[in-house]
């Protein structure tokens, strides 16, 4: 039995996609950080990088589920960042009108 994914001891080696893992980690961190004032600025860096890594990882033959989850989490983090900008803009406009 000489398959490519079985080593000599008989254990199956699981294929992984490093970009998908990185995308998922960055997406989760961006969701967590976006809710913390001032620290949430880090999410502006993490979310786009995670989104790009997730979309690139979708082209790999394995790890597609993790790449999809990473892209979704990064997208949610990016939407949270945009939401903060809109919220601050509305508050600034309301403050200047008073």
TrEMBL record:
Protein name: DUF4190 domain-containing protein
Taxonomic lineage of the native organism: Bacteria, Pseudomonadati, Pseudomonadota, Alphaproteobacteria, Caulobacterales
Keyword Membrane in annotation: yes
UniProt organism field: Brevundimonas basaltis
Keywords: Membrane, Transmembrane, Transmembrane helix
Transmembrane segments: 20-53, 65-94
